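Thanks for the sequence, V.! I ran Hsp20/alpha crystallin family protein right away. Repeating your input here for the record:
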Amino acid sequence: MLMRTDPFRELDRFAQQVFGTPAPGTWSRPAAMPLDAYRTGDEFVVSFDLPGVDPGAIELDVERNVLTVKAERRPLPTGDDVRLQVSERPLGVFSRQLFLGDTLDTDRIAADYHQGVLTVRIPIAERAKPRRIEVTGAKTERQQIQA
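Predicted structure:
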């Protein structure tokens, strides 16, 4: 099989990875959607930045303790009288996967989208919460006779 390569395209791709900016005249999308994750009380919270994404274009799936978030930023409507002057916002489908620990209750995940931020709340599983264990002891012979 014959493969055609463009050394300048590879150089542009390398420059983007190192410097984080696309080469002039090229289009690229971010590698992942930025997120913050923290634990508060009895839940684990993850917030994803998804500005300009319609809530109907967001998908959340959980399979075998892997949370997958997919979102699509669609282009603005165009027409005969619209002339695009600048287009710097990345478009297309973005996805991110998080590997969840066994201590999280994946059956009770809740998600909310507000002002361009998707917030996913995952409760801590009951079996993972700290609990007090009662310690019992055997009665001595003297205690058994007196009883």
